[in-house]
Amino acid sequence: MRWLLVLGLCLTACDDTIIGGGGKTYTPDWLGTQVFFVDQCIRCHPTVEPDIDLPGDILVDVCEETGIWVVPGDPEASMLWRVVSDTGLESDPAVMPFGTGPLPEGQIDFLREWIATGARVEGCP
């Protein structure tokens, strides 16, 4: 739950450069990714789907370099990208957000860029 405190602090420090006006846009960095999770994912993860803790699981995955959700430098090999962009493999979970299909490309381009440029997370041990 410590990540909730950190996320809350980050969100209170955000300005309009992080989240755009009418159509939401996000910065291609860890902060923008966390804001995206809050906006698009947190209502079901971990409450409806308690086995997936976002953004906690992504943070652990990237910092420990497990490659379960994110393969830095390779969006197509990253399950996170495949699931939100509807380019998933048959073995991947359903396209997210569940029930509404993939988000508009413009809202998820930042995620592809973040992964493609190395999925950097400040403060990884």
Question: Biggest sheet: strands, sense, closure?
Answer: none
Spatial separation of the terminal alpha carbons: 18 Å
Shape assignment? globular
> What is the arithmetic mean of pLDDT?
79
Order of helices and strands: HHHHH
Percent of residues in beta strands: under 5%
Tally of distinct domains: 1
Question: If you compute it from the alpha carbons, what radius of gyration comes out, rounded to the nearest whole angstrom?
Answer: 14 Å
Low-confidence stretches: 1-22
Binned, the helix content reads: 40-55%
Q: Determine the number of helices (DSSP H or I, runs of at least 4 residues).
A: 5
In terms of structural class, how would the helical and strand content be classed? mainly alpha
Extended strand count? 0
Task: Explain what you see.
The chain has one domain. The longest helix has 12 residues, at 2-13. It has helices at residues 2-13, 30-40, 56-63, 79-85, 105-116. With 125 residues, it is mainly α. The two termini are 18 Å apart.
In short:
40% of the residues lie in helices and 0% in strands. The chain contains five helices and no strands.
Topology of helices and strands:
Elements: H1 2-13, H2 30-40, H3 56-63, H4 79-85, H5 105-116
Overview features:
about 40% helix, disordered N terminus, mainly alpha, about 120 residues
